[in-house]
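Subject: Sanity check before I submit

Could someone independently write out the structure tokens for this chain? I want to compare against mine line by line before I put it in a report. The sequence has 468 residues.
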Amino acid sequence: MQRGANRFPIRGKRRAASTMTTLNGDLNAPPSEHQHVLNACREHDVRFVRLWFTDLLGQLKSVAITIDELPSALEKGVEFDGASIEGFARHDESDMVALPDPDTFVVLPWRPQQHRVARMICDIHRRNGEPFEGDPRRVLRRQLESAQQRGYTFYVAPQIEYFYFRAPDDPSPLDSGGYFDLSPLDTATDLRRETVLTLEEMGIGVESSHHEAAPSQHEIDLRYTDALTMADQVMTTRLVVKEVAIKQGVHATFMPKPLNGVNGSGMHVYLSLWDHEQNLFYEAGGGLSEIARSFLAGLLAYTPQFTLITNQWSNSYKRLAPGTEAPVYLTWSHANQSDLVRIPEYDPADSDSTRLEYRGADSATNPYLAFSAFLAAGLRGIDEGLAPPPAAEDNVFELTQAQRAARDILEMPTTQGRAIEAFSKSDLMRNVLGEYVWSTVLQNKRLEWDEYRSQVTDYELRRYLAVL
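---
Independent answer below. Compare away.
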């Protein structure tokens, strides 16, 4: 929840990290992207390459190949069995092809320095070469291509919150620190430092990092870039956080609400829409442009329909509760830290810094699908000429239910069941995600909700067993 961070977008061609160094050839005639990767592997003694991809639930998957297989993988991809991967199993075909994106090549800093390991992020295809409709990365690519046809580039910058615990089966905090605390209360300073250095070595820009509000809760803020690059970076960041924690003998988790009585982990995202070098959200003299206001109105109007994407787990809805700085109502403001959308302060003379902050997503969301939903909802708001309601500069949680009703303040879905119902009726989400992804997500989340509702919890046993 860093105030005022992530101000300036990084514009230009998507690039891999600095490890992609050309070894030979005419500088005026750089090698192809494939040869660039092969050259970098030779330079850095890379012997293994991990091909990463993401399933529909936002879980990172990997296929490892040796360097001898890399030329073929770059040209043809690598086949894998998708039958046991959520969202990748098809009724008539389980074989999929992972096709690596050369722009995402980077050496993994935490692996051995001899016979090193690199990674590339993949797009998933069918065996006939067609893009697989169940690939979350393809969903985002399709939305960005649609926006690009209209002259828009979508930039995002997330603030990723998470917890450190003693072990995966022991949610004991490492410290009792609070927001922006220093040592000795913040005992994970070195963990964050190593994480940030690792990310920067991989070419991922970090704006800042700090201790968050809850005990043992932390935040890393990534620097603005285009939405596809950022989705790749979010997936990488979550893995790096966990890898660094494991190396130090602790457990990092992006579970939205792991502890009672304290804040959960959100992923607040700064959003802006650009036309070449111009920030379309900027209004000369201050304020938001008409495009920005319609984009904002689209986010507010369609949030109920995509809440199941930005808060996909049953546990996610334990975070969306009053008193935890997480949003509950479909409101916006300039100052209130609990509204769904906030307009951060900025210099009216600085057009680059005008942006919206969407606060409704948690840190366990699938970033490819979440960014797709943000863009689609905002563009729908522009297309429909929507106008946002008056800003809710006072604390909406302190209003009575009647006062909120009088001001037409509506509530977000606050249970997974309500989110499923809104998602199931959404033509927007069906169109944005495609029939395959929309129906698969709906089926998976209905099963999760039914399983969750049938559980007998410790709370129920303590509350009812002795008295009923």
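---
OP: Matches mine. For the report I'm noting this point. The CA atoms of residues 274 and 280 lie 5 Å apart.
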